[in-house]
Amino acid sequence: MSLRIKTNDKVVILAGKDKGKDGKVIKVFPDKEKAIVEGINLVKRHSKPTQANRQGGIIKKELPMWLCKMQLLCPNCGKAVRFSSIKKEDGKKLRVCKACQEPIDVE
């Protein structure tokens, strides 16, 4: 499966407890078809005191979400959109919003 969402993309969550929220993709796991989105899918984990973390306590962290539950956010029209890929003259691919026909990738 080709990944349609990349690191540093802005996405909108389509399903789950964070439905309707948006955030920036921190990391993508292509083999698992999941991604970590900043500030989305937060859970609390209890940690024991260690040499590195002497305090211990409760830590909030983001867990990976399925890619099928998120959609790319167009920076031009501000909506969750589908996009198409076009090839430029130099051989690179460019993602274009299907709603406003503007390029999504910023170079």
Outline the structure in words.
This protein has no helices and nine strands. It is an all-beta fold and 107 residues long. The protein has two domains: 1-73, SH3 type barrels (Roll), CATH 2.30.30.30; 76-107, no CATH class. Strand 2 and strand 3 form a beta hairpin. The protein is elongated and about 55 Å long.
Structure summarized in a few sentences:
The protein has 107 residues and is mainly beta. It is built from no helices and nine strands.
CATH class of the largest domain: Mainly Beta
H/E element order? EEEEEEEEE
Helical fraction: under 10%
Helix segment count? 0
**Strand portion, in percent?**
35-45%
Report strand order across the widest sheet.
6-3-2-1-7
Task: Count the beta strands.
Answer: 9
Distance between the termini: 25 Å
Low-confidence stretches: none
- Provide the number of structural domains: 2
Radius of gyration: 17 Å
- In CATH, the architecture of the largest domain is Roll
Q: CATH fold name of the largest domain, please?
A: SH3 type barrels
Mean pLDDT: 87
SS-derived structural category: mainly beta
* Largest sheet descriptor: 5 strands, antiparallel
**What is the 3D shape?**
elongated
Write the layout of secondary structure elements.
Blueprint: E1 10-13, E2 22-29, E3 34-37, E4 42-47, E5 57-62, E6 65-66, E7 70-72, E8 83-87, E9 93-97
Antiparallel strand pairs: 1-2, 1-7, 2-3, 3-6, 4-5, 8-9
